[in-house]
Amino acid sequence: MQIVETGSTAVPRERFVMNAWYAAMWGENLAPGAIVPQTIVGEPLAFYRREDGSPVALYDRCPHRFAPLTHGKVLPNDRLQCGYHGLEYAPSGACVHNPFGNGAIPPAAIVRSYPVVEKHRMIWVWPGEGPPDHDAIPDFSVIEAVLPQHVAKLDFIRIAASYRLVVDNLLDPSHTSYLHAGSLGNAEMIATAKNTVEHTDREVVVDWSSTDVPAPNLLSVMLPAHFPRDHVDKWTHIRWTPATNILLETGMCPTGSERTSGTGYYGFHILTPENERSTLYFFTSVRWNPLTDPALDAGIRDTLTTSRRDVFLTQDGPIIEAQQRRIDQAGEALRPALVAIDVGPVRYAKILDTMIANETGANA
Ligand code: FES
Ligand SMILES: [Fe+2]
Fold first, then answer.
1. DSSP string covering 300-320, please?
2. Could you tell me the pLDDT band of residue 224, with boundaries at 50, 70 and 90?
3. Domains of the chain with CATH codes
């Protein structure tokens, strides 16, 4: 394979874009009355819901004696009560009740409150100091208005590595033919693969397509009986938007036919750095143009849920974590020997580094 010219960094940088929306959790995982802790870009946050259902995100530390607010409880009128000595906070972060003395509120009794939005079945939080850009929430609307039997479990795993290594993994579909040989990929896909990369200063789009190949085993569960499963055109179209959000479309159609005659799924891969070495990896899939007998769809959904989770947990996760350990072990900047498939990962890294540099005033 050809070597790609690049000016990218030699190793993943461990800084974060702060002025961006990060996925905190799937909305269904924040029950009314619950307080859920989640660490995002190194900041411990406490999430709960107002009585009208809208989410709240507060810094998870009471300013009195610094107990985590996640040890407290949600009270009527949208208040969060610290579990240690009972000070109460409003969604704005202001202390609104002190049960001691004359009840005066100390000026320092205020918690940082974060912009938070529930959209596309996900709770998004903006950790930066800048004004939240509501247009920057990624368009994941394909998850809406679909039948439940076509949506896999809204799932997540945790990977002990920099989020950058996980983005690299997801913008490089070639690894499906090696790491996931026999499930998501096969050798024939490599032999005919075409890889194109397009980008602007706000997104990178990778298209990886193969012609006249056998359908990958894991994906063939979506094919109806009449489909020519040994002769399909197979593609994966991947879109990254800052800072860590990926929506892909993968599909198969009979060789030589239009893509729209085929079937496949949208893959949601939403990454949130907990810190420099831990990444929350939210994922699900939504089938497009289902061609199978509707009576089979719930079973197909459950198979996709189980098998994709298994692939991420037992194949991607372990190799990315092992890769991170080798990088950290080096104790010096390693320069990757880049090949053609690295164009997408190099492109996104440049955009991300520029965004970080613009925030910090450093050189990208
Ligand atoms: S630590 Fe929260 S009220 Fe005392
Ligand atoms: Fe993978």
1. HHHHHHHHHHHHIIIIIHHHH
2. very high
3. 34-136 (2.102.10.10), 146-360 (3.90.380.10)
